[in-house]
Design a protein that fits this description.
Elements: H1 2-27, E1 35-40, H2 47-50, E2 58-63, H3 81-93, E3 98-104, H4 108-113, H5 123-128, H6 133-142, H7 151-168, H8 171-178, E4 183-190, E5 195-200, E6 205-208, H9 211-219
Parallel strand pairs: 1-2, 1-3, 3-4
Antiparallel strand pairs: 4-5, 5-6
Helix pairs in contact: 6-7
């Protein structure tokens, strides 16, 4: 497997790097990404590929289940500081105008979150998945956004919305949204079809991203 990765590096240098030489030269002195993209660590979700994004366009944070531990009233994360640090850096230093939380189909974290009992040999993972429990509670008591999906995909969609709420628990996020300098966006990727969906608040559903949806959501 290491050989495959290293051969990929050589292939990039020989075939692709000439097309990006100037881009990397410009990026060497700093970055100014368009968005902060929070998504799952799942290998099937490739943000730059799916968004046709050039190097330097996305400031990306990945973890199991695309989870964002909420903050206290003082803006301090109740969980791992990595996510909170990424939020602060994206908003205060990079000054991104959009944050995207992107979930996906067949998410292992969502399947695990639905289990009543979990293996005892993964204590860190079990603690981490507590940040998906609000989504599981809502699915059970409020129902799915799309009942045609299997239950773990139903949870994955609701989880995106819950993590957006967790983001909004950070004062710097709320203040930036109120000032009109930041937008929060929920996306969901269907692995089998390769299609990306965005949450439409007016329809309370994830809609296929096409040119009509772009015009409607970006203008709203």
């Amino acid at each position: 497997m290491l050989r495959k990765l290293m051969e990929g590096v050589v292939e990039f240098r020989e075939q692709m790097l000439p097309h990006y030489t100037e881009r990397f030269r410009q990026l060497a002195t700093g970055q100014s990404p368009d968005a902060f993209f929070i998504t799952c660590a799942d290998s099937r979700v490739v943000p730059d590929l799916l968004a046709s994004a050039l190097p330097g366009s996305l400031f990306t944070m990945r973890n199991i289940g695309n989870l964002v531990p909420p903050a206290t009233v003082d803006g301090v994360s109740i969980g791992d500081l990595s996510e909170a640090s990424g939020i602060e850096y994206a908003i205060l230093v990079l000054k991104v105008s959009d944050i995207v939380v992107c979930g996906h189909s067949e998410c292992g974290a969502m399947k695990a979150a639905l289990r009543k009992e979990r293996p005892s040999d993964v204590p860190n993972l079990n603690r981490w998945l507590c940040h998906a429990q609000t989504a599981a509670f809502r699915l059970e008591h409020e129902g799915a956004l799309d009942k045609s999906l299997c239950v773990h995909d139903q949870l994955s969609q609701i989880n995106v919305l819950v993590q957006l709420e967790h983001l909004a628990s950070y004062p710097i996020v709320r203040e930036s949204v109120s000032a009109g300098t930041l937008r929060l966006n929920g996306w969901w990727f269907d692995v089998a079809s390769g299609q990306m969906y965005a949450y439409d608040r007016t329809k309370r559903s994830f809609e296929l991203i096409d040119r009509d949806l772009i015009d409607r959501l970006v203008m709203s």
